[in-house]
Design a protein that fits this description.
Length: 89
């Protein structure tokens, strides 16, 4: 029984390894880019365009962090700002 449990734990760990997680995030990122391309003439100048693109990136990374938080934290546990989940408004 211990051997089966150990093998199952290793398989689960492999599915959530850093390389596997990165590949899933990249696949999702490519899918989102394909489904929601960024408009070319989004802003009147380079600075505004860069700011808007950074806002989009922040929202995407925030969503990924929130998904990871939901997958990692135990039900009922609320992360605090000290735990690195602060999102600017």
């Amino acid at each position: 029984m211990d051997c089966k449990l150990r093998d199952a734990a290793r398989l689960t760990a492999k599915q959530f390894s850093f390389p596997a997680s990165i590949q899933r995030v990249l696949a999702l990122y490519r899918l989102l880019i394909a489904e929601h391309p960024v408009p070319k003439d989004l802003a009147p100048n380079t600075w505004t365009s860069a700011r808007l693109n950074l806002r989009r990136e922040w929202r995407l990374l925030s969503s990924i962090a929130h998904a990871v938080e939901g997958a990692v934290l135990q039900p009922g546990h609320k992360a605090t700002v000290d735990e690195g989940t602060h999102r600017p408004s």
